[in-house]
């Protein structure tokens, strides 16, 4: 038999309490460390990518109004663009720096001077315009699609003013503008739009952003 050692039980209890307290401290330290890591390692969200776009179209097509609405500007302050203007249009996954060019007859001949550095093109047309204006818009779009600085870029073509009675459908626009044969092999989107349905406009721009993102991940060509 083992003789009882005075104070042995007391020492054992003391050691057990000390061990339990130490473990509790380690658990507490571990929780603090995890919380610290969660707070410090999370950091700010990554910056949204920015893309430089050029927006063209005849006067009266609605370029300025659409872009102003996307920027949540007051409709009362909208003034038709006579030269050019630049707007930063924010989206959840990107910021579009849009250079809008005036569409008057005496300005369109200078459009190409502002194409350099563009990563995508927005072409706005009035789907309810006269036959003459529609023909002019068709020629301008053809010229842009074939321009050396734009021909490889993604295009968003907006058939605006769909809320007007004389508006032509997307299928009519596609056929009249001969988009299928002319833009074959290019990346383009044709969508109907109006100021009455800005959610549809935003969805169209989201599709353009997808094309811009795909371009970012394309393998470089030697």
From TrEMBL:
Residues given in the record as GTP binding sites: 57-64, 103, 160-163
Binding-site list for Mg(2+): 64, 81
Keyword tRNA-binding: no
Pfam families membership: Arf (PF00025)
TM region positions: none
Top-level taxon of the source organism: Eukaryota
Signal peptide: none
Alphabetic keyword roster: GTP-binding, Magnesium, Metal-binding, Nucleotide-binding
UniProt protein name: ADP-ribosylation factor-like protein 15
Organism per entry: Ficedula albicollis (Collared flycatcher)
Higher taxonomy: Eukaryota, Metazoa, Chordata, Craniata, Vertebrata
């Amino acid at each position: 038999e083992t003789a009882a050692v005075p104070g042995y039980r007391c020492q054992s209890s003391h050691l057990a309490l000390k061990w339990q307290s130490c473990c509790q401290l380690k658990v507490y330290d571990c929780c603090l460390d995890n919380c610290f890591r969660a707070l410090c390692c999370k950091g700010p969200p990554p910056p949204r990518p920015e893309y430089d776009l050029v927006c063209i179209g005849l006067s009266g097509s609605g370029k300025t109004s659409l872009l102003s609405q996307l920027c949540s500007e007051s409709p009362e302050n909208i003034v038709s663009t006579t030269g050019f203007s630049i707007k930063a249009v924010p989206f959840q996954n990107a910021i579009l720096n849009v250079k809008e060019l005036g569409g008057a007859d005496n300005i369109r001949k200078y459009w190409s001077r502002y194409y350099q550095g563009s990563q995508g093109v927005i072409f706005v047309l009035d789907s309810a315009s006269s036959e003459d204006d529609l023909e002019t818009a068709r020629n301008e779009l053809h010229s842009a699609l074939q321009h050396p600085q734009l021909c490889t870029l993604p295009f968003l073509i907006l058939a605006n003013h769909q809320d007007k009675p004389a508006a032509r459908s997307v299928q009519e626009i596609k056929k009249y503008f001969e988009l299928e044969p002319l833009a074959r092999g290019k990346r383009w989107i044709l969508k109907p739009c109006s100021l009455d349905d800005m959610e549809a406009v935003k969805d169209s721009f989201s599709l353009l952003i997808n094309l811009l993102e795909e371009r970012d991940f394309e393998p470089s060509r030697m």
